Structures are given as C-alpha cells and as structure tokens.
User: Fold these one by one.
Assistant:
Number 1:
Amino acid sequence: MSVWAAILAGGSGTRFWPLSTPERPKQLLPLTGDRPLLAQAVTRLRGLVPPERILILTGPFLVDQVAALVPEVPRANVIAEPRAASTAPALVWAAHRIGKTDPGAQMLSLHADWAVGDDHAFRAAATHALGVAREHVVPGKPLGSARAVRRFVEKPTAGRAALLRRRGALWNTGLFAWGVPRFLGEAGAYAQELKRAWPALAAGDAAGFFAAAKAVAVDVAVLERSQRLAVVAGAFDWDDIGSWDALRRVRRPDARGNVVIGTVTLGDDVEDCVIWAEDEHFAVTGVKAMVVVRANGHTLVMPTGQAERLKLLVQRL
C-alpha cells in the first residue's frame, strides 16, 4: 500500500510581522535555522514518502515561491487552493486527488510550519500511525500499542486543557494518518460544512468545491465527530511556532536568555529577549522580556507574551 503526504502550507503568518508578510509567510521563513520551515518539512519525509507522492497545498500567489523552494517535489503537486477555507476542504481535496491516481493509498497530513526536534522519531511515529490506520478499522477492536480515542476536543480553554492533561489526555500535534477511501467516507458522513460542495468534488471542480465549502478545520469537521479514531504517542520535541516567543524554545538562547538573529549590538543588561535584524544593524540595551524586530522596512517592539495583541495590531495596519 503506497503512502502519500499532504503538506498544508497556506496562511499568512501574521504573528511574525513584520518579518512575515502575505507574500512571504511564516512557512517560507528560516525561523528555526538556516532553512525555511517548508523545506524542512519536505526533508522530514525522506525515506517515508517519495517527493513524487508529496502534495503541497498553498495560496495561489505562493505557488511559484513554494515550487522554487522545494524543487524535488513535482510542480504539478503544488496545489493552489482557490480560496482559503481552513484545513478540512484542503485535505478532502487532496485525498480526492490522491484517490483518483492511487485509490487504495494511505495519506499523511502535516503542516509546513512546525519545528520538530528529531526527524527520525517523527518518521517512526508516522509509520506507527500508518500501521494502526491500516490494520484497525472496527470501532472497539483492541488497538495494541495505540489507544482508541475516547473524545477529541479541539482548542479547549486553558482551564479545560489543564484539566484534560491531569486526566492523562494527549496533545494533538496535527499529524494525521488515514486511508484515503476511509477518510473521504468519514468526511462525507460527518463534515456537514462540506455537504453542498460534494457534487463539485465528485466532478473534479476545484473552484466550485472551494467556493461551496464552508471554512472549517478538519479537527472539527471530522475528528470531533468520527467514531474511528486512534492515537499514538510521538517521542520527539514539537512546536507549532505560533509567536515570536516560540523562538526561545526552538533556538538556543545565549547566556542571558536572548535569541538574537542578525547583526545586533547588545548591552550587558538585555535579558530574555527575542531580537531579529533582517538587514540592518541596530543596538538594544536596558530591556528584559521584549521582542524587537526590524524587517521589511518596519520595526516591532513589544513585551513577550503579547501574540494576540500583535495579531490585532497587524489587522489595524
């Protein structure tokens, strides 16, 4: 049974303004090292999924950049989403396209903007998940080294998340594995947000499908509703790099807790800061727990822990 991968590479990455822009969003940036996140995601699949079986879903205006960034993936496999409608329509369309070529295939779904600490362990977890998806199809059947999912809770409040963790719940990283026919069957049965779009899907009409689909995450449209879920644990560091603060987790801070990228002169009193100088030299002194960024002709200065306020600010800009 062949394995395909769908890499979700849409989104504008507003939480990394001013470095990230709609024309160069987060997944195209080298946030964790020297290579863009998307290029790392493709490399992470090496030995598990060949490049010709990797699909990358992205915005229409990013197709050329994406194709140039990962030339090992056939350009025909870089799919433009006619409309940004979250992850459920994108993954259903990818599964439909795979099924036309390879009806019995399995499919991995992953995001282009993750930081993963151990690619080997990541591939091991993905292989384990594919095996579970292939072998265990009857609800209630013993799942061996996997666990049946009792309940899937998408984006719980902080209080509820803490309660779930105390009860032994696992954190969903967004790495999914499924058989293509089974996933399409579950989406057809449960994703009511896509019901009006299904005729366009059957007709292979991408524009019509995305136009008729309601914007909805696959987590809500399928996973919260399906009775055929299992989970396997992954033994690797993982971060979705959701804000500037995350760089202190995915890059090695200096002795004072600072992550500094670019040419920056620091005073001895700078502590626990994230500082990014894209193409200009500047100096920082007398600050603690701050984000200071100079990129694309703009400057950002804010305390750490203010990701939501930055998102609102970018909307105003």
Note: Residues 190 and 225 are 6 Å apart (CA to CA).
Number 2:
Amino acid sequence: MSATETAQRIELPIEGMTCASCAARIERKLNKLDGVTATVNYATEKAAVDYDPVLVEPQALVEAVHQVGYTARLPQAGAHPTT
C-alpha cells in the first residue's frame, strides 16, 4: 500500500500496556482500520499512526484502542514536533 498525498501522521500516547503482547494487540486493532498503518512501541508507550483523514478520523483511532482495553488520547493542539 502506498501512502497517499492526504496521509497524515499522529502519535498517540497509550496507557495500560504491561507487555509487548499488549502493544501487538493494539497495533493489530489499529491496522484493521481502513487507511491506517500503525506501529506501537511498548517502551515509549506511544502509537505512531499514519492515516488517511478521508477514511478515518483521529477520534476513531482512540476508540479502537479503547475497544481492546487500553487508554489513548489525542495529542494536545500545538504539541506537534517541529521538523
């Protein structure tokens, strides 16, 4: 799957993970969403998510994490890293 011009990246802080299996479970759930490619890092407790905003809204990413029993939140406005 190639990235589209509309693809965006978001980093979601994840709470409640206790092991690498938790991270894998969250990653699988996020990757099942249309237009989403996600990598979850247990050590940093973050999910790096590339998504197509035409197909999925950021809040849907948070809800997907909640569905598998963990807590995620959207980053605060203005907290995007500078490049």
Note: The first helix runs from residue 20 to 31.
Number 3:
Amino acid sequence: MLKAHSLQPNQEMRFPPMWGEHAISALHTPRQNRLLAALPEEDYERLLPELEFVTLPQGLSVHGAGVREKYLYFVTEGIVSRFYIMKNGALAESALTGREGVIGIAAFLGGESTPSQAVVLSTGHAYRLRADLLNSEFKHGCPLQQMLLLYTQALITQVAQTAVCNRHHSVEQQLCRWLLLCLDRLTSNRLDMTQELIANMLGVRREGVTEAAGRLQAAGVIQYCRGHITVLDRPKLEQRVCECYAVVRKEMDRLLPDEITN
C-alpha cells in the first residue's frame, strides 16, 4: 500500500528545507510548469514573487481527504497521485498530475476540500501559491483563471476515462495506460515503483499486475527488477494500450498550450 506521511486535519504541511536561492534559479523555474508557462509575461511577473519553491519527496501527502486546501501546487517535476481510500483500507487511483497541472483545485472551485488524497508518487518539485492570493487574482478575470479551468476540464476527462478503463479493459491494458501516463510526466524511461504499489493504484490484485508485467517483459516492452521498471520500447507499449490513453492525452493537448505566450 502507498505509505504517505500522514497529516492531522488542519495541520500545515512542513516541507524539507529549500535549496540555496542561486541553485534554485539555476535548475528550477516556475515556467517548467505547463500552466505557468502559458501565462502572458505581465501576469507571470506579477505572480512570481508569490510562488514558493518546495520539494516533493516520494510519499509526501500534499493534501489529505477532507482537509482544507490552503495552497495550490504547480508541479514542475515528479508525479502526484490522486486516490481514494475505502473503509476497508483498499485504495484506487483516479488521476495523475505532473508538470502539466496543479494540485489543489478545490481551493479555486469553491469547495475548499475533496474526499480524495494527493500523495507524491515520484519525487519532484513544485511552486506553491496561497489560495487566498489566487482568489484575489480571480476577481480580475486573470489568464491564470482560464488556464486552471481548462486544466480542470482535462483532469475530469482523466478521472472519467480511468473509471471506464478500470471497468472494461484488462489489467495489462490498464498497466500500459498507467505506465504511459507516468512516462509523459517523467524525464526518463525508468519508474521506481513496486508491483504492489502499482496494484494499489490500479485497484487490482498484485498477482494480476505480476502476470501483466511478465507478459510485457517477455515481449521486450519493459524490464522489471526489484521495484524498478524501465520501458524499453515505447512504440510497442502504445500498440498494446487501450484507447483510454489516447483520449486523455488528446484532451490534455487540446486544452492546454505547449508554448509560452507573451
């Protein structure tokens, strides 16, 4: 099961110390996030002083179920998983977020919290913004508001397609979809994920993931060893995946721009 650093309700999350200012500016910028990269220069510069750089170690709970979301986290590296935990302890993932998106949509949709949790699946970084500052920006109908709403639409598509995929497609197809979604959010073809973790995210038995991963490895698509999955042949992986991956990918590309618009 995914082990998250637990937080009590209303407890503020404490992040690891930030790097030196010069190191941060040299290696990380808010423009590495797709939403912030799309902002006009004037709006980006106005927002820049309010963005706080934070590290996202694997297993960190960005927000818990039912906890008020005080910040938005614009991911620049890594993967954050959104999932639900049932009363019996079982869990299932509803969506993945990487540099294309943001964590904390309840903060600007007005609900303040959600019944899902958001936990770091792959170590990375983000820039966080206080929710009250964002609400102030929204009053002026800023471009960021439009970008966040477009991202929310893309996220809804991912959540809905995940439900369809889990209901109608094989474990192997689900695994292929999940691997491709992860690859789209990483800078390498290697994932540090155990089969048990993947099974928890997909909401299936570990044995099913083991069999599916074995078939993919035998076909030369992936290599699996001690919690590390390396994708050897992405085109073959895309050939074996169901249509759900393409639906999610196309909608994300349709709604969100790739280039900085100044």
Note: Confidence is low (pLDDT under 50) at residues 1-25.
